[in-house]
Amino acid sequence: MKWMIDASFAVHPDFKSHTGGTLSFGGGAAQVMSKKQKLNSRSRTKAELIAVDDVVTMILWTKLFKGYPIEKNILYQDNKSAILVARAWAKEAELSIFFISLSQIKLRKEMLRSNTVQLTI
Known about the structure:
It is globular, with a radius of gyration of 19 Å. The protein has a single domain (2-113), classed as Nucleotidyltransferase, domain 5 (2-Layer Sandwich), CATH 3.30.420. It is an alpha+beta fold. It has two helices and four strands; from the N terminus they run βββαβα. The longest helix has 34 residues, at 80-113.
């Protein structure tokens, strides 16, 4: 699957940006999305990040809908600063997921030892 995502910065009368996205399976476009962003952004980079965020839910839904594992799910982005910020966020999210998984393993061990579990947050 290939996703092409782009944003047009502050093109509406209320200075909101516009998101466009296309899903491609091989030759043609399988799904197309074009909509006004709900948030005002102060820069082209933020508009691009909002566009990616708008389309990520469609990417996840499509993966679930297909019903079989997708080996390559490629997202094309043309704004280099948005790519750098997104990579940093992805690394931070991976780290958070790692710690959540680690805490779940510890929680399961505690549940096996006793019938009650005390959670400290």
